[in-house]
Amino acid sequence: MIMDADMPKYLYNCSACKESFEAFHLMCEKLDKREGCDKECALKKVPSFPINLNKSGKKQKVGDLVKQHIEVAREEIEKDKKKLKEQEYKP
Q: pLDDT tens digits for the chain (91 residues)?
């Protein structure tokens, strides 16, 4: 297994040693045994949910974050359109 900080981080519980630990791996991979554990581990992935912490204290309306991302995407599309219009097409 390759450990890379760009990979998703998962939290596991080991039923044999009663410990929790974090592991980085691809989504398609599944851990069967905890590294450094001699016991026969039964690992269970602990569900994690993304949390949006609004540190400014202001409450956002439902959909505001989506609208912000849509606006950023529109701006990027407009930049790409301008860039493509400046290029000469050669079939």
A: 445 556 778 888 887 777 888 888 787 887 777 777 777 777 777 777 655 555 666 677 878 888 999 999 999 999 999 988 988 878 7
Q: In this structure, which long-range contacts are made by residues 24-30, counting pairs with CB atoms below 8 Å and at least 24 apart in sequence?
A: 25/1, 29/1
Q: Judging by beta carbons within 10 Å of its beta carbon (0-12, 13-18, 19+), is residue 69 exposed, middle or buried? A: exposed
**Residues 77, 9: Cα–Cα separation, whole Å:** 31
CB 42 within 8 A of CB 14: yes
CA distance 55 to 61: 15
- Environment class of residue 67 by beta-carbon count within 10 Å: exposed (0-12), middle (13-18) or buried (19+)? exposed
Nearest to 7 by CA among 26, 23, 22, 21: 26
Q: What is the pTM of this model?
A: 0.42
* Coil vs helix vs strand at 77: helix
